[in-house]
Amino acid sequence: MLKLSNRFWFVLHGWLSLPIWLVFCFVCLTGTIAVFSHELTWLTNSAARANNPDNVPALSAAVLVEKVQQAYPTADVGTVMVFEPYLVNAVVFTDHDKPQAIAYVNQYSGEIQSVEQGITFIGFMRALHGWLMFPWHGSYSIGYYLVSGMAVLMLGSLITGLVVYKHFWRAFTQPKIRTQQGQRTLLADLHRLAGVWSIWFLLVMSLTGLWYLIQAIFWHADIDIEPHPPLVNVAQLPAPGSEDLARPVSFAQALEKVQQLYPDFKPAYLHLPEHNRDMYILSGGGDHVFYDQYAYRASINPWTGEVASSRSPEQMTVLQTLTYIADPLHYGTIGGIWTKIIWFVFGLVLTGMSITGFMMWGLRTFKGAAKVRKAVDIDELGETV
């Protein structure tokens, strides 16, 4: 039976980690920053802060849409995004002079604090980390494949690293950092110690990254993890030439319908109909810790008020469950600010590991090259003599 040497595992560990170390380091760093993208938005953009000095309850998203439509009578509102209580709601709309705009509306006062055109900081960080700003061609992006594919190398590095580092569990009770034995020894000790203490984090990042890769393959192959929202039946539309083409079911009534369906529903992404056969598609979170803010969804018929389709964590398939628990685990939002801090710290550790790994490889490579040059010089000197 073929027995693989420790040297083999060491070399394999290096090759799994080093070819993409620069991109990997960049993805780790941007992901670490993305963990606090909402908090950084509040810190750097005063227009995004939802100040509530009088401690009044938040207004309904339907009221905020009315505020935007009053300020921009010709606007066509498409989406409302609800974030943390300390951030304003974002009302996305189009107008004759605005191909796409985002109104930052304070949900406590109803004031439109700013109207922006272009990508938000939160969206920018998500795009930079998730697919390196590569363009999307239909249902796939090379950048998304590149980033999610790193999960395979990360998992391989974790496994080979544990094989190379014998008795790694001792690092939990007997951490060793030798500062007096040279740079290579110090870097190796830091790299191993960080790796052992980050085993759980590396495993979470690898498994969620693998799911993102599988999800990308499904998208590319047009395999639906969940069904598309239904369209309004043509028979339910007003007759051609009808004078009243206004939808009888308002946005406020649709929200009320979802709230009755799911009492713990917390709005997150609210889509208004774009055409006559489109529906209100209302997504939000609930009291489930491990599911993201889009775990609940309902499609409301704007002509009849009926719930055309709905989905909650209890109704999900296995693949749907994986889809809606991946982000909270990947970005550390499962426990609010405290788990975000933990994910941020270990994200920095993972970024540092990629740097120390490359430095160790560089020192070893340069030292080996120096030895080869020295041997060649000695041989040439001997021939000369």
TrEMBL record:
Coiled coil: none annotated. This is PepSY domain-containing protein. The keyword Transmembrane helix applies. The lineage of its organism: Bacteria, Pseudomonadati, Pseudomonadota, Gammaproteobacteria, Alteromonadales. The keyword Mitochondrion does not apply. Keywords: Membrane, Transmembrane, Transmembrane helix. It holds the Pfam family PepSY_TM. The chain crosses the membrane at residues 12-36, 142-169, 190-214, 341-363.
